[in-house]
């Protein structure tokens, strides 16, 4: 927590837990999301991203903890919140057997927009998300990127103050993803706060603030830049002609956090400085001549380092 | 093809089946249910038909004959009446299927043997009742040995369906059966589809309430149901000259009440089913007893008591009473109020259970 932002948070979560029977999906989570932030949830599958998002929009009731969204307490004031909240589900959840315009019309009616406003809003959104040509096409026949643009249009139709996006780009090509993120920044410019879950590093890097979740725990929470600067380990590039064998040798060596082959070279994350020498000696002993070059930290390093640390027993027991 | 691979698949299927308790229950449940239901319900040897007796002769011999007819157990003499109007009224309300009428000149007729001495007035809107009445008419009347072959001592008079045409019996019941099939199945599937396709997750985050959603999805089916009623009525009239003897408006009102009952059953099933396929399975599971026990296939009076109790729980049983009463016997809707009330209670119970279950399943 930096505490330098004195505006009231849009989302304020304290000690949030969710249990499904014996499974603890989310464990005593604390979160503050401030206005106009694009706040990212980064985590592997099953880390509790979707569960947290669902609790934040009132879909799921928490087992314990406090949630305040847009000044409203959840789950008590969930109904009032729904008018000011947009939620885009992980899987396409509009009606496949309705056309683009029919889907938007349906949502407008659900949100109680006036007839005049509905017409105006639909034209506006069709235009902004390049759907005008497709307005009479059935939603089920759209491409992945088109479906996603329609889903975003549906989620912002009623001009919500807060937009929750659950892995919005999982079925979308890179070009569409880039366009999609531009649309998100357009929305924050207009005053919307966005909470987005993802498991893409390039997307996580675009967020103004990032929370890394691992098995229901919050393991990192800061801006991507500061997270990279504060990386506990050091990335090294292992340059050699037999990267696969080098990887086998280096695996399970003390101090090695992670290894990944990148093209013809091997990228390695180690705990601290001074490990280059023993590691290159270990390689030489295995008959591999290698040069270990320090590399700049990226978000994947942060992610790998954060999610491998043993559980620290912070926070009260559920 | 490898035997091991195939066996692995068999094992996997068995494991899945063991975990899918519904399918498992139905694999066992349907044959058991069919066996039990058919075993009891296909009983053309009908007994205990409700009957009234109108003994205008009231002599020793007439009383003896009535006692002998009752001893066959085919009829139960629940009512003793004095006038033909009372017979009309009881049959119109569905209280009796048969009336035994002995004329004032019963003794004279017996002795002369030129005219039937006894009339069996039969509710012709039920085929099986007709058949058993014809059987009863072959009962040997004592002291009538000298009867000529042309004139039987017992005459059967068919009320409501003098020509004994099958469509007249089936078409009203068919309205109920068709509504049962479509209303229950369609609502259950339509509601589950929303959940299965993920639409529900999106909708929950909007201001739509569960009841708005349910009612909004169910209401179109009320219209569809009324259209189905119209189609059956028009075709019945046109192809088989099936009459609507009572009020058309009351017939539609009765259908509307039944449609609501069936929709509420569909809504209830949708709270149990996790997929559209399961919803379909459950809907079929409820059709079977409705079609077999409601009186559509076999006369209600001929079923054993346990089956009758079960049948009283089914909406189709009550609707058949309404629709046959109004269409064939010119009964007024209010005369048939117990059936109407039963449908109302069924609807309320189903909806309350569905509400209770929806609240629970929020989490």
UniProtKB/TrEMBL annotation, chain A:
Keyword list, A-Z: ATP-binding, Nucleotide-binding
Cited Pfam families: ABC_tran
UniProt xrefs under InterPro entries: AAA+_ATPase, ABC_transporter-like_ATP-bd, ABC_transporter-like_CS, P-loop_NTPase
Taxonomic superkingdom: Bacteria
Protein name as catalogued: ABC drugE1 family efflux system ATPase
Domain (ABC transporter) ranges: 11-240
Native species: Litchfieldella qijiaojingensis
SMART domains associated with the record: AAA
From TrEMBL, chain B:
Top-level taxonomic group: Bacteria
InterPro entries per UniProt: ABC-2_transporter_component (IPR051449), ABC2_TM (IPR013525), ABC2_TM_bact-type (IPR047817), ABC_2_transport (IPR000412)
Coiled coil (residue ranges): none
Subcellular localization: Cell inner membrane; Cell membrane
Annotated ranges, domain ABC transmembrane type-2: 133-361
Pfam families on file: ABC2_membrane_3
Membrane topology: Multi-pass membrane protein
Record family assignment: Belongs to the ABC-2 integral membrane protein family.
Protein name per Swiss-Prot or TrEMBL: Transport permease protein
Species this chain originates from: Litchfieldella qijiaojingensis
């Amino acid at each position: 927590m930096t505490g330098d932002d004195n505006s009231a948070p849009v989302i304020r979560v304290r000690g949030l837990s969710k249990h499904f029977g014996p499974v603890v999906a989310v464990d005593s989570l604390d979160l503050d999301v401030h206005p106009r932030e694009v706040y990212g949830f980064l985590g592997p599958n099953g880390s509790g991203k979707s569960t947290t998002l669902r609790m934040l929009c009132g879909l799921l009731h928490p087992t314990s903890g406090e949630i305040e969204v847009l000044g409203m307490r959840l789950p008590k004031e969930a109904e009032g919140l729904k008018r000011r909240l947009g939620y885009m589900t992980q899987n396409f959840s509009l009606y496949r057997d309705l056309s683009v315009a029919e889907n938007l019309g349906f949502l407008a009616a659900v949100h109680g927009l006036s007839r005049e406003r509905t017409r105006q809003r639909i034209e506006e959104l069709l235009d902004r998300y390049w759907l005008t040509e497709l307005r009479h096409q059935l939603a089920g026949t759209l491409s992945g990127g088109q479906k996603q643009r329609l889903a975003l249009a549906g989620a912002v139709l009623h001009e919500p103050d807060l937009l929750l996006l659950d892995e919005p780009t999982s079925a979308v090509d890179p070009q569409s993803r880039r366009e999609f993120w531009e649309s998100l920044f357009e929305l924050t410019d207009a005053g919307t706060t966005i909470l987005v879950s993802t498991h893409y590093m390039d997307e996580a890097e675009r967020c103004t603030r990032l929370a890394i979740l691992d098995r229901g725990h919050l393991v990192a929470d800061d801006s991507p830049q500061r997270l990279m600067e504060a990386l506990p380990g050091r990335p090294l590039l292992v340059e050699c002609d037999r990267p696969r064998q080098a990887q086998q040798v280096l695996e399970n060596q003390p101090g090695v956090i992670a290894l990944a082959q990148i093209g013809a070279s091997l990228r390695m994350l180690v705990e601290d400085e001074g490990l280059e020498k023993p590691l290159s000696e270990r390689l030489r002993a295995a008959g591999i001549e290698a040069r270990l070059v320090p590399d700049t930290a990226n978000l994947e390093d942060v992610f790998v380092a954060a999610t491998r640390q043993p559980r620290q027993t912070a926070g009260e027991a559920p | 093809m490898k035997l091991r691979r195939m066996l692995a698949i068999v094992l996997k299927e068995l494991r899945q089946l063991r975990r899918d308790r519904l399918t498992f229950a139905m694999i066992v449940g349907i044959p058991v249910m069919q066996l039990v239901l058919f075993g009891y319900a296909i009983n053309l040897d009908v007994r205990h038909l409700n009957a009234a007796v109108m003994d205008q002769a009231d002599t020793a011999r007439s009383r003896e004959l009535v006692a002998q007819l009752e001893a066959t157990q085919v009829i139960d003499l629940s009512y003793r009446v004095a006038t033909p109007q009372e017979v009309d009224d009881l049959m119109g309300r569905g209280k009796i299927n048969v009336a035994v009428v002995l004329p004032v000149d019963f003794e004279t007729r017996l002795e002369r043997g030129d005219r039937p001495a006894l009339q069996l007035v039969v509710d012709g809107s039920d085929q099986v009742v007709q058949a058993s009445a014809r059987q009863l008419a072959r009962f040997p009347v004592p002291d009538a040995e000298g009867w000529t072959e042309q004139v039987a001592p017992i005459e059967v008079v068919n009320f409501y369906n003098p020509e004994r045409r099958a469509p007249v019996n089936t078409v009203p019941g068919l309205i109920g059966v068709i509504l049962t099939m479509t209303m229950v199945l369609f609502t259950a599937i339509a509601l589950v589809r929303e959940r299965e396709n993920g639409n529900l997750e999106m909708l929950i985050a909007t201001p739509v309430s569960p009841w708005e959603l349910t009612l909004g999805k169910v209401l179109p089916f009320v219209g569809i149901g009324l259209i189905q009623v119209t189609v059956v009525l028009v075709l019945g009239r046109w192809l088989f000259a099936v009459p609507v003897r009572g009020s058309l408006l009351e017939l539609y009102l009765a259908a509307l009440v039944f449609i609501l009952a069936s929709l509420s059953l569909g809504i209830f099933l949708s709270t149990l089913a996790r997929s559209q396929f399961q919803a379909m399975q459950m809907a079929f599971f409820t059709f079977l007893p409705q079609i077999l026990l409601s009186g559509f296939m076999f006369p209600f009076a001929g079923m054993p008591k346990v089956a009758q109790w079960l049948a009283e729980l089914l909406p189709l049983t009550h609707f058949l009473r309404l629709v046959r009463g109004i269409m064939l016997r010119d009964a007024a809707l209010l005369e048939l109020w117990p059936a109407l009330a039963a449908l109302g209670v069924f609807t309320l119970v189903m909806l309350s259970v569905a509400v209770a279950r929806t609240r629970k399943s929020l989490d």
